[in-house]
Specification:
This protein is of the alpha/beta class. It is about 15% helix and about 40% strand.
């Protein structure tokens, strides 16, 4: 293990439209908020935090959506893929098996950020 960095403590997606983004992650993706403030919402996965927040230097859609991709771990990628498609999620790529044995499906959020469902090999 690295003797300086112990883990990834959290990820933040900055937006100008917190209400729309929060609705997507909560109502479509199904995340439950851990902490809700007027300009910041945090979701907890064990010790990891996934957050949405308003930032004064962020406006419009993501300008380089392929630069960073967030992987959301799932145990049944095909089932989650079908559920999200039924809820209107725009997938760029359906679930496909990767050369390393896992499966990946790629989609957009309302701000144009790219996320992936990731199922590790069994």
């Amino acid at each position: 293990m690295n003797d300086m960095i112990e883990n990834v403590a959290g990820v933040i997606i900055w937006t100008e439209n917190l209400e729309q983004l929060a609705a997507f992650y909560q109502e479509v993706i199904g995340l439950k908020p851990h902490s809700v403030q007027p300009t910041f919402i945090s979701y907890r996965f064990g010790e990891m935090r996934f957050s949405l927040g308003v930032h004064q230097q962020v406006s419009g859609l993501s300008r380089e959506p392929y630069r960073v991709m967030i992987n959301l771990g799932v145990s049944n990628i095909h089932q989650v893929y079908e559920r999200l498609k039924e809820r209107g999620v725009a997938f760029i790529r359906p679930p496909q098996k990767e050369h390393w044995g896992g499966h990946v499906a790629t989609f957009w959020d309302p701000d144009g950020n790219i996320l992936q469902l990731l199922q590790q090999p069994s």
